[in-house]
UniProtKB/TrEMBL annotation:
Signal peptide: none annotated. This is ABC transporter ATP-binding protein. The chain crosses the membrane at residues 47-68, 126-145, 151-170, 238-259. Its main location: membrane.
């Protein structure tokens, strides 16, 4: 990942490195210029030499200022560009229709795509700054060697040794940074979950307990952040103290050499100036190590998300044509809690499924949506005569639409939440709303289909949200529509109207399609051509709603309320 980061920002990174290095060279040459001015112009009293020295020093400061300004701009641009690219990659991976198995919660993915992406991008800045300060140290060492070889060798040996010793606390900082990012992401994930379910928490009176849970998670995140900040502070203090002691030794040796007559006044100024200047790149090198440690911790979390295996591994085939005997067929399927399940959906059918165990319903929906693990599935699941795991994902989604019970609505308008794919006309959207018994959301509202929908659709009730999601599924008009508990948030009268509307909308399609409703609603199941009852993961019985109510105790207990 680090090599890729530098490769795709190589132009701006290279320009930034060159210009920042030039700035460091110019800054290192300032005490050299002052020392030479003293020895060549001030001590001998040479006015001409003084004029040249002053002009050279002015040029040096001009280069110093322009190089830093331009180099910092290129370096910052590369860093921000990399942060943008990482955010886009993380968002693309999170939104990939194949899904991912990183094990990260929604809030953690959000933290990785924002905070971690920005922190990981600092690697670009650290790389440019690291090279620049290394150049400064090399130039300073060379200048010191030209003044006095033993003194220069002492600096040449001392600086790497100092950096080697400072690597020990850097490893501790990496661990603290990882803990900080992990706990912060956990707190974000918990906050996302609580905000999403706020209405439910208020309804069951669990708001206080939820607040306590978040407070506990926030305290852990605070403690981890304080620990990381403390480690960073100690590290900065160690770098400053070690640099000060080292440079004091250099200055002391240079002063003793001047007293012995081995250095001129100008050379003493050069040595003291270089020793004082060396504090900045030495500390900068230490700070670069700290930035590398922080960026590495975030990069590891990004890699976890970006390299996570797909939740679904699709093929490249398309479903068979309308002439297939069955649009969807499960034959001897065992998956999770399901055992030896047979189920066929032929064109024009309206089939109901009653699962006495919610886990059976979830397993069935996973199989029909192509999210089931092929290695953990026995038997065959085909769509249009093609095994579901051999299908191209876009082709599968175009053929089979699984409308989950917890469908989400998005901020925008009613129209933007109903439109899928090519924009259908308003009449088609209104027909879908009527079938879902949601026409009241448009009729009487001044904005009609352009009625605003807030974030998380909080300006709609639970029943309204459920009906809009159902209308969206009906408006998309897929060949196979799978609905999971589409009427749990509405009253009995509305439930009956929805059942009547859905049956009419699906049987009135221009081409024969199939509808599968996984529910315990007697209004929906009574309109099914047949109902499949799953008990203990197996097909217990199959028949019409009326017959099953009379003959099957399990069925009667589940649907009659």
């Amino acid at each position: 990942m680090r090599r890729r980061t530098l490769r795709r920002n190589r132009r701006h990174v290279s320009l930034g490195v060159v210009l920042l290095s030039l700035h460091q060279v110019a800054e290192a040459l300032v005490p050299v210029a002052i020392g030479l001015t003293i020895d060549l112009a001030v001590v001998p009293g040479n006015i001409t030499a003084l004029a040249y020295c002053v002009a050279g020093t002015a040029l040096l400061f001009t280069v110093l200022a322009l190089a830093y300004r331009t180099g910092a701009r290129y370096s910052l641009r590369a860093t921000e560009n990399e942060a943008h690219l990482l955010r886009v990659e993380a968002a693309r991976r999170a939104l990939d229709p194949r899904g991912e198995r990183s094990g990260l919660r929604v809030g953690e993915v959000l933290s990785v795509a924002t905070s971690d992406a920005e922190q990981a991008a600092l690697y670009v800045r650290a790389w440019a700054a690291g090279i620049a300060v290394t150049v400064a140290i090399v130039v300073t060492t060379v200048a010191l060697l030209m003044v006095d070889v033993p003194l220069g060798l002492g600096v040449l040996v001392g600086v790497p040794l100092l950096m080697l010793l400072l690597r020990i606390p850097a490893a501790h900082i990496t661990r603290r940074s990882e803990a900080k990012q992990a706990t912060a992401a956990g707190a974000t994930a918990l906050a996302t979950d609580l905000v999403t379910g706020l209405r439910v928490l208020m309804g069951i009176g669990a708001r206080h307990n939820a607040a306590l849970r978040y407070r506990s998670a926030s305290v852990r995140a605070l403690e981890a952040s304080v620990g990381a900040a403390a480690s960073n502070g100690v590290y900065r203090g160690l770098v400053t103290a070690a640099s000060a002691v080292f440079l004091a030794c250099v200055a002391g040796v240079a002063g003793w050499m001047a007293l012995e007559g081995r250095l001129t006044i100008g050379e003493l100024v050069i040595v003291i100036g270089l020793a004082q200047f060396l504090a900045e790149p030495v500390q900068g090198l230490g700070m670069v190590g700290q930035i590398f440690a922080t960026a590495r911790a975030s990069a590891e979390r990004l890699v976890r998300l970006l390299n996570a295996p797909d939740a679904v591994t699709p093929g490249d085939r398309s479903p068979g044509g309308a002439g297939e005997a069955a649009l969807v067929e499960l034959s001897g399927v065992s998956y999770r809690t399901l055992s030896d399940v047979d189920l066929r959906l032929v064109p024009g059918e309206f089939v109901g499924v009653l699962a006495t165990d919610p886990r059976d319903a979830e397993a069935l929906l996973e199989l029909l949506s192509g999210r089931g693990d092929p290695e953990g599935t026995d038997g065959s699941v085909t769509v249009g005569g093609v095994p579901v795991h051999d299908l191209d994902l876009a082709a599968l989604r175009a053929t089979v639409l699984v409308e989950e019970h917890g469908s989400a609505l998005f901020e925008g308008t009613l129209r933007s939440n109903l439109v899928t794919g090519a924009d259908p006309d308003d009449e088609r959207l209104l027909d879908a709303l009527r079938a879902a018994s949601a026409e009241d959301l448009v009729v009487g509202h001044p904005d009609g289909l352009d009625r605003p929908v807030s974030d998380q659709a909080t300006n709609l009730s639970g029943g309204q949200r459920q009906r809009v999601a159902l209308a969206r599924a009906l408006a998309s008009d897929p060949p196979v529509l799978v609905l999971h508990d589409p009427t749990t948030a509405v009253d009995a009268v509305t439930e009956e109207a929805i059942a009547r509307g859905v049956a009419a909308a699906r049987t009135g399609r221009s081409t024969a399609g199939a509808t599968l409703v996984v529910a315990a609603s007697p209004a929906l199941l009574s309109r099914a051509d047949r109902v499949v009852v799953l008990v203990g993961g197996r097909v217990h019985r199959t028949g019409t709603h009326a017959r099953l109510v009379e003959e099957d105790r399990h069925y009667g207990e589940a649907v009659l309320r």
